[in-house]
Amino acid sequence: MKKVTYRNQISRVLGVSLVVFLLFSISIFAQDGAVASGDPAKGKALFNQNCAACHALNRKMTGPALANVESRLNADEGLDREWIYAWVKNSPGVIKSGDDYANKVFNEYNQAPMTPFPTLSNDDIDNILAYTAAPPPEPVAASAAVAEGGEGGSSSTGISNEMILGALVIILGLLVMMLVLVQGTLKRIAVANGLDLEKAKSESGLPLWKAFAQNQFLVLVTVVILLLSGAYFVYGWMMQVGVDQGYEPIQEIHYSHKVHAGDNKIDCKYCHSSARVSKTSGIPSLNVCMNCHKSIYEYKGNPEGPSQEDLANGYTNEFYTGEIKKLYKAVGWDEENQSYTGESKPVEWIRIHNLPDLVYFNHSQHVSVAGIECQTCHGPVEEMEIMSQFAPLTMGWCINCHRETNVKVENNEYYAKIHEELSKKYGVEELTAAQMGGLECGKCHY
After folding, report:
1. Start and end of every Cytochrome c domain (predicted)?
2. Phi/psi of residue 406, each to 5°?
């Protein structure tokens, strides 16, 4: 009996130990599962949509860095996921409740209020936390492949302009040498046949230039032709003075309209806001740039990597990121502390479009009243990596535009009365700017 009792006690101890071990294991796996739960891919999309304006993974911005935020909060502050749910959905409420850590973060980041996200579910927050714990890898392989392909293509199929020019110079030299040799050969043949070259020259009569000089009619016609053609070319050259079509200066900070207006669909008038209400479109001040670039501190570009054309021109992600750093230096922005240092340096932009002082042009009249698109005068800026002057901006070009452009009168009270009167006069429904007085000299010159 004693032996049986002893075995029963051992069995009980082993059984209790097994139960405790299983419970402990379950709790550990449950915690690990909680940390690892969520879809990082979905979390990345939610993070970029809701969090990226103020947070980055590995650096301070308007708010703190969020890489491994859950594990750090749990280890340093003893806060669990329920606290994170409450904070994300209603951060002002957590602060007002007197939570120590919430108030600490609030004061540390200049009491910048965090936008509450009551519409995010717990599953959404789980996905975001999964992304901050293990973000999906960036597709760098595609970029590298494009780079290798671009280099290989240029080396295997490309022929440089220097090679072509060198080949042409060699061919020209050979032709000159052949002509000299042929001339020498012909002279030797003539001498061998008993031909006196000097006597042949003297018997050929007057030189051509003397015969031409003695013909007064031919001289008169030639002089008239030369004067007219000279006047034509001089007039054409003078008409190009001040016409800078195609002018494409390199700016101190590279600004890509292709990236901003094309890829990111930023409205032209967000940066050039004065075009709506004033004569000039204006050069945006750098604080307009910082509205976005306080948060956008690096260029990530196309997920598939830069194109071969961009690589050939040096427009890599690193290049664009370097230009953002130039912006920070110009405005005196401290990335680490997310604050201005007060040490700024003005950017010396080079003006591209410049009408003469004798011309009056009002942007607001064309943009706000007439509804003309920016691309009409400035070309497809959304495709321009470096901004250039698209149109000649001459008087003839402006006049043609006024003759061909119909005035937009729908829902435009500015033109209502004059459109009613002129449509009766001309017997048409659509009126051009020229028909409404757009060719009158005083409209642009006064």
Report:
1. 38-136
2. -80, 140
